[in-house]
Amino acid sequence: GNSVTQMEGPVTLSEEAFLTINCTYTATGYPSLFWYVQYPGEGLQLLLKATKADDKGSNKGFEATYRKETTSFHLEKGSVQVSDSAVYFCALSSNTGKLIFGQGTTLQVKP
Amino acid sequence: DSGVTQTPKHLITATGQRVTLRCSPRSGDLSVYWYQQSLDQGLQFLIQYYNGEERAKGNILERFSAQQFPDLHSELNLSSLELGDSALYFCASSEAGTGRDTQYFGPGTRLTVL
After folding, report:
1. What residues of A are in contact with residue B100 (Cβ under 8 Å)?
2. Is any Cβ of chain A less than 8 angstroms from the Cβ of B49?
3. Which of A46, A50, A44 is nearest to A32 (CA)?
4. Which residues is A59 bridged to in the sheet?
5. Alpha-carbon separation of residue A51 from A33, A70, B110 (angstroms)
6. Which candidate among A25, A111, B59, B111 keeps its CA 20 to 30 Å from the CA of B85?
7. What is the chain A residue with the closest CA to B102?
8. Which DSSP string do the residues of B14-34 spell out, in sequence order?
9. Measured between CB atoms, does B93 come within 8 Å of chain A?
């Protein structure tokens, strides 16, 4: 069945460091891929998405490219801020739209 | 603010009881999804409705049921509650209920079963 695997956290970085959170997936067909972010005590917010191979999603300085050949959708940001501290979830969608999430990666950014 | 509302925000109840969680989707969205977030299981899809009809089912227990009403709001009913049902329950909505849609999540209902 479909599944998503994310790198284990927590990830601790200093402000202005480069961020990569790895995400790989297993799926039949051509799913859409998403990154959602969850700030403490809040619901999930869409960070970015890509709906077909080689698409790049981007938002707020974060980027991820849909790589079909490596079945990956790694999240990157060139310079993180303390306000980026949150839990990040990689997800894929089925044809009906149900989301299958990775286990989440906690990011802590220190000033 | 995603435009998806969920009530109540917190719910504390005892084992064996029954509760109802309510969700109002964003204006114009026809599809509603329910997810459960727990420490041991992570984020799990429970069930999806589209314009009043069940469209997809995930790891939803038989003790749980849901429906979507003509005004498109949805309710998730949890009965014979067990300690392990304690979790954060999210509702999400999307426009057309397809794989390319963006899902917008509500703030969640935190259920504590004592």
Report:
1. 32, 51, 93
2. no
3. A50
4. A62
5. 6, 16, 32
6. A25
7. A46
8. -TT--EEEEEEPPTT--EEEE
9. no
pLDDT at A42: 86
Nearest Cα of chain B lies from the Cα of A87 at a distance, in angstroms, of: 12
Residue A16 — pLDDT band, cuts 50, 70, 90? Answer: very high
What's the confidence (pLDDT) of residue A30?
84
DSSP code, position B96: S
**Bridge partners (DSSP) listed for residue A25:** A4
b (16+ CB within 10 A) / e for A67-78: beeebbbbbebe
- Tens of pLDDT, residue by residue over B12-60, are 999 999 999 999 999 999 999 999 999 888 999 999 999 999 999 998 9
Minimal-distance CA residue of chain B relative to A37: B105
Residues of A in contact with B44 (CB under 8 A): 101
The verdict on a CB contact (< 8 Å) between B43 and A104 is yes
From CA B111, how far away is CA B44, in angstroms rounded?
Answer: 15
